[in-house]
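Quick one: Bleomycin resistance protein from Brevibacterium linens ATCC 9172, structure tokens please.
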Amino acid sequence: MHLTLNDAKTAARTLRRCLAAADATISHSRALEIVAQQLGFTDWNTASARLSAVHSGTGVSVPVLRIHDAALARDFYLDYLGFTVEWEHRFEPGMPLYLRIHRDETTLDLSEHHGDGTPGTVVWVPVVNAAALLAEISARPHPRLSPGIDRHAPGGPTVEVTDPFGNVMRFCETIE
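--- reply ---
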């Protein structure tokens, strides 16, 4: 497996988050520079160029999920599942929302546009520890959800949650 530019950016975000938990703060650019040096590069610009060049062929896919209500989507994906907004777009006020969100290595696009995605889509998301994810989201209860772990799911222990629009998120701890 090759280290990607996104891996390096994730490492910088994780570094900042860990330092902040210890009451130490650094800027995002300083975190990028530290990660670049840890990876053996002289600076972030060099790391960014080299890591971008390593990636060839197709990129990481981004599922597009159909939503019907931006407020419900934000409540579920941001407040409950812990995703953060990467960017959002409307052609003008009152028009449908298109929203890109991410959590760790998982990126999703949420769209109110007719024809984007199909309600009832299933997204399989690998996780390191399904029990830890379940504990985290259970600490932020959702009024219509009470997920558990299916320890006998085909891919490994799986936490499954269904969004307000019928889309299913399967967070699976893969077992080697």
